[in-house]
Amino acid sequence: KVVDEVAPEDEHKYKALMSLPIAEVRGMLQDLILPDAGQHRALVVRLLRHLRGLPPAPSDARIMGKWYAQQEAQERAEQEAQDAQERAEKERAQQELRRKAKEDAAKEQAMEATRRALEAAKRVPGPAAPKAKGPEPKRRRSSADATKVSAAGRAAAPVAATEVAPPVADAEAAAAEAAGDDSDSTSSESEDVADELERSDPSVVVPLSEADVKLFE
Q1: What string of DSSP letters covers 81-125?
Q2: How far apart are CA 16 and CA 31, in angstroms?
Q3: Biased-composition ranges for Basic and acidic residues (predicted)?
Q4: Nearest Cα to 28, choosing from 39, 16, 36?
Q5: Handedness of CA 77, 67, 50, 48 (dihedral sign)
Q6: Rounded to two decimals, what is the model's pTM?
Q7: Residue 43: how many CB atoms within 10 A of its CB?
Q8: What is the dihedral of CA 146, 147, 150, 151, to 10 degrees?
């Protein structure tokens, strides 16, 4: 493993170490070109002792134990950091799932409330729509209505005659004045007949002639 990690130009030096006594190897390690002299030196020494079937020296074991302890601490710290990051991501994912579940539950409750309100509104009877009214049927006139209409017409007739009469009466009065004695004689004759009838029978009412009515007006 150590030989594989070394640059190719230093590979022959490692191979040469395997054939040398340990004491000579220790002295030669000071001259090796290594990126980390302390760790690689300990690794090379341990490797050579293992290849030659020698037990590790106390100093070598101490150096290697310290190095392995550092490696294990570093790996443990990296693993703990990775685990913490994974736990944080899982917690965020769970929080997001819980938030979505709450939103879905709130939406479902709102939809259920709306549906119940619509069903309740359908069950409540609304105001009846007004029926369209058609044309009213013509009422047939009865005989009583005809009698009322004729009576009203007769009652209104004298009023109309009275309203229209003055201009006609004025014209005829002027004509009567122009006629002279004929109208006076007719009027006097009518008055004589009326007086005579009233003296004979007071209950008798003599109707006036048209000429008397016009003169009276």
Answers
A1: HHHHHHHHHHHHHHHHHHHHHHHHHHHHHHHHHHHHHHHHHHHSP
A2: 13
A3: 74-122
A4: 16
A5: positive
A6: 0.28
A7: 19
A8: -150
The dihedral over CA atoms of 184, 190, 195, 196, expressed in degrees to the nearest 10, equals 130
Written as one string, the DSSP assignment of 26-39 is HHHGGGS--SSHHH
The predicted pLDDT at position 89 comes to: 93
Instruction: Provide CB contacts within 8 A for 39, sequence distance 6+.
Output: 67
Q: CB neighbours (10 Å) of residue 60?
A: 19
Which residues, given as ranges, of the chain have pLDDT below 70?
Answer: 1-68, 125-207
Distance CA 212, CA 112 (A): 99
- Specify the 3-state DSSP secondary structure of 46: helix
Residue in the structure block whose two tokens are 């302890």: 69
Q: Where are the domains of the chain?
A: 2-82, 166-217
